[in-house]
Amino acid sequence: MPRAAVAQVGLRLSGVGGTDELAGWLVAREAPVGGDLVDPRMPERIGTRGLRNMAHESRLALAAAADADPGGPRDAAAVAWASSTAGLTEYATICTEASTLDPGLASPALGPASAFNIPAAMISIRLGLVGPNLTLTGGATAGLSAIAEAIRLIATGDATGVLAGGSAAVSPWRAPNGFIAAEGAACLALAPANHKGVHLRTRHRGALDEAALGATAGLVVATPDTGIAEALAKRLPYPVWHVERTLGDFGAAGGLIAAVCAVALCGETTRPVTILALAIEPRGNAVVLEVSSS
């Protein structure tokens, strides 16, 4: 199975300043840090032009991606993103304005912002990346599917590197499920596997097969189903951390957050270790990502 290396990590999460703090929250199993509005804290090199009219989630995504962007050739660098809320508020607003205002009075800035591919497209434009860009939507597995697509693009030579990320904003379209509706963004800058450091490999996609969860030091699971997470924690012989319980519900970005948590945990040890990231949909579809430090 093809692999990719993690070159950089970008984070914009409530109460979490870096991967070391993220690993600490998981291990301590403290109360969720999600639920608060997150400051995008845009890097200075991005500038301020056009940010005022940019949707909040798009600013979060751009800030995380800009922190993760390792530079290098731009002509074949891609973006694979996961979000279940991108463009929804802007789409609803532009529909309302178009039906209630006189022609021509609807804000022209809402048009591009209402596209569901806006995070990946906007990141590509602002960072000058010329490779493919796509935004995946759906449940928690979308985040790990974005990473799987990023690994595939690198393995096939269609991209020299990929910014694989996910973002979420508090939205009226996110149904309550017992967890805090968290917002934020995270991004992994992925490079070819010959780079040193933490490596990622897709281990399993499809119906959950617990045989794919063997031989590991721990599991980070993203799922809105508390029962599944608790059952895995009881059956498996190693630590299991639940993203939604510890950090909040990030929707489609949940699997991506799980992967970033696994990367953070790998960074906490000096010895080689493998930690799995697992995303499970309520109907049983699952993606398992292997995260290994060398």
From TrEMBL:
Residues 45-181 form the Beta-ketoacyl synthase-like N-terminal domain. InterPro entries: Ketoacyl_synth_N, Thiolase-like. This is Beta-ketoacyl synthase-like N-terminal domain-containing protein. It comes from Phytohabitans aurantiacus. SUPFAM superfamilies: Thiolase-like. Pfam families: ketoacyl-synt. It comes from the Bacteria. Gene3D superfamilies: 3.40.47.10.
